[in-house]
């Protein structure tokens, strides 16, 4: 039986690039590598303007706190260290490197000297940290920290290959083209966690990927089929579908004995262990009606959207929005020169016509149809939350569990009244957080 | 350069022309389902069409004109009110058309052509627009209009023409099945009987409701709970005395606008609960009150009053039936 969860909605898949094999894009002349690409502390630069850097050399380090190093994605000369905006609008430092086109590999890059069986969990955690790996599904949590906190606590290891967001096929292609990396990465994570089995979860709209993984898997690693339904790729819904455990809002998977990694993150662990290669490149789905040649591209971290679009044949229509991530949860970007980061699974460019499709230019009005309530994967009452948010009764919204909202967008997607439900909830959550911080100061 | 190279170069430069475009900053999601209020309301209109056509066949021209007048005046009143109140014009969402049609459905086909117009004015201006427009009214506008007309013009509202009377060129007032006319259960089910314009054919109303269920416009909860409750109570405790009377139960289900009410009025989104459990409670409450009003009330009217009373409890029902939050141990 296929596993699934209660609620959710079938969204139009738009998996236009499912047959587009991963193409390796040569790095452009300049790459801009942000020193903060994950949740946690930003890295401090360890190189200066004018320095020569080798490919995969460390250029930024986190001395204290949650974080992992950042590496050069090309070899060349550091042109400058400047402040830019990250994909969600925060100011971060970034190192601009002029690519010498030689990709001279850093001497630090070498496979781990011991076989997996003799490697300790601590060594694996360190290795993942040094490789600069953070969640590549979009949430960008440092992978070493997730692994470390799960050791001894988690009894279930899950690999998230659901890829439930429309348009994105990056993980799908990695599963098809590099299945042994995902399986191998899973074995490394199993070893670190001291587990004898693991589950790789794939939505059933990717039967070819499921077959491919089954060809390469080991008896210990189960390939589970999930019913295709948004937001199946949300870790809460994967955990529920496969274990029946419910993860409350604000809790971590380890709290219910689970640990869950993204498909490409798992492949990155494999690269780090067997090749000593840190995270310098990732697969990005480039799609949307403005893109001349939608495809999957293996991109050097720090490549600008502009260079990426140029590689994909440019823009054929006037863009209305550039989205970092999927269309359901991705963030709009204002700057076409922003760089690809470790968390960017897709860059989508929509024209005004496409983005407005379905919204139908009607005056937004709730007709209380109850679809949002029926579909909410967290079993909230979005309609009630909107009502309260409109009246700015944010405190009352806590009673309706507003903080459990994962902002997956299922409610807004299906709303026949075109209500911007998620926006109303975001406003309220921000207000509640701000009030809590203020309250904390007073005490 | 060869021609091919040239065209590639031209394409390249054209494609880059858009790189300087101003980009919209917006909140996700960036795609939406194609469902709109207009499409939902259009589905309701489609679902009501078979019953409408049948009533024209049974009652003739006035059964055609009265609902039509309801629709036209409801749309017009909505337009004018929104103009005067300086609100965006939303008659295109078809919700006023649905209200107008339902007002017509709740009238006898007796040539009192002012009834749908006055009813639409009350429903749209007072009940809907003055409470804030679509989604804000707390009682069903069409039902409120029916009760308003019923209390204002009781004789006109109960002057029912006999079915098929026009075939004989002779319009006579007649008793409805609830008023004591003897009609077989099969004729009641098919709609070969007297009554309000839209209520007579249970069969065609069920066909319309099935369409709405298939199109996922409504869910089964309210109709099932409503009809089920009425069936259970009237079967166990028939008002005629005794117990377990199937014949009595079916008559109660097929008369007095119960099908129209349970399938199309109680399921009105705006004035019914949004949670599945809330909808079951709401439907059961409508059922109990309908039987209560029929058994003990002094008006020949149960369905409208029952639904209007339950409308007033919707907000409370929503609050007490909120679903258990995912990951929350107990009911939140």
What is this structure, in a nutshell?
The complex is a heterodimer of chains A (443) and B (332). Chain A is built from 14 helices and 17 strands.
Average residue pLDDT of chain A: 93
What is the CATH topology classification name of the domain at 116-275 in chain A? Rossmann fold
Order of strands across the biggest sheet of chain A?
1-14-13-17-15-16
Task: Output the radius of gyration of chain B.
Answer: 24 Å
Please tell me about this protein's structure.
The longest helix of chain A has 22 residues, at 421-442. Among the domains of chain A are: 116-275, NADH-ubiquinone oxidoreductase 51kDa subunit (Rossmann fold), CATH 3.40.50.11540; 371-442, no CATH class. Chain A has helices at 121-130, 143-150, 170-177, 179-193, 207-216, 235-243, 263-275, 305-311, 352-356, 371-375, 382-390, 394-399, 410-414, 421-442, and strands at 23-24, 30-34, 44-45, 52-53, 58-61, 70-71, 76-85, 91-99, 156-161, 198-203, 221-226, 258-262, 281-287, 295-300, 319-324, 331-333, 346-351. Chain A has 14 helices and 17 strands. Chain A has a six-stranded mixed sheet with strand order 1-14-13-17-15-16, with helices on both faces. With 443 residues, chain A is α/β, with parallel strands linked by helices. The relative contact order of chain A is 0.15. Chain B is mostly helical. Chain B has one domain (37-320): Ammonium transporter fold, CATH 1.10.3430. Chain B is built from 15 helices and no strands. Chain B has helices spanning 3-16, 37-59, 61-84, 95-105, 114-128, 141-152, 154-157, 185-190, 202-214, 221-236, 246-254, 258-265, 276-296, 303-311, 314-320. Chain B is globular and about 80 Å long. The interface between A and B is large, with 80 and 53 residues.
